[in-house]
Amino acid sequence: MWMRATWHECAAELDAVSQQFRKAYWGTYSNSLPRDPRDDAEMVRTSKEGVQILRALALAVRSEQDFNLVPPIHVVVGAVKKEHARPEDAAQVKQACGYAHVLALPGYTPLHLREALNKIAHPDPRSADYFIGQGNSAHELLLYGSNRGHNWFAAVSVLRLVSAIQALPDTAMQ
Predict the structure, then answer these.
(1) How confident is the model at residue 1 (pLDDT cuts 50, 70, 90)?
(2) I need a surface site. Which of 15, 86, 112, 141 has the fewest CB within 10 A?
């Protein structure tokens, strides 16, 4: 549902969709196994909606940044691995319980907003994954792709991304 008109409204909508996804992940209808099919259906629905919002935000904010129409902010919204990256790196983030913990591992560096928006715009859709933290403490996108023949892997915190977008001056979506 395209209700948003500004970046802040878009970020608020993304936050709400993320909350719905996390709720379904932990079991809206039943938190016992086997999973309730309604929770799986809700995860699929909110995932599709979240991807639409993320791509719209990524392109809108990056475009404005390209022409210095918004101030740059250097907030960390995840972790990135640029050397020897593989889709299987997603398992490492899940095992470590999120991006903040893999930053201590070799090969990972902080992922700032601008680069995260680029990763959201250019992932390999066959390798996309996610991580949900205990008690809804985290919702991370685990993305893999290639840039000029160099593979990369990124763990992007949806919650930190929302905060970073809301820290920017509010701008109408184009």
Answers:
(1) very low
(2) 86
Question: Where would I find the beta strands (DSSP E) of 64-113?
Answer: 76-81, 108-112
Gyration radius of the chain over CA positions: 16
Structure tokens at 19: 């909350």
- Give the pair of three-digit tokens for residue 62: 């990056």
Asked if 14 contacts 57 with a C-beta cutoff of 8 angstroms, the reply is: yes
Q: How confident is the model at residue 157 (pLDDT cuts 50, 70, 90)?
A: very high
Cα separation of the two ends of the chain: 16
Which 3 state secondary structure label does DSSP give 161? helix
Q: Which residue ranges make up each domain of the chain?
A: 7-167
| Alpha-carbon span 87 to 93, nearest angstrom | 11
Whole-number Å distance between alpha carbons of 26 and 41: 13
With 0-12 / 13-18 / 19 or more C-beta atoms within 10 angstroms meaning exposed / middle / buried, residue 135 is exposed
Beta strand 76-81 with 108-112: parallel, antiparallel or unpaired? antiparallel
Summarize pLDDT for 104-114 with one digit per residue, the tens. 999 999 999 99
Angle value at C-alpha 81, between 162 and 130, nearest 5 degrees:
50
Using the predicted structure, report yes or no on whether residue 103 has a pLDDT greater than 90: yes
What backbone torsions phi and psi does residue 70 show, to the nearest 5 degrees?
Answer: -130, 150
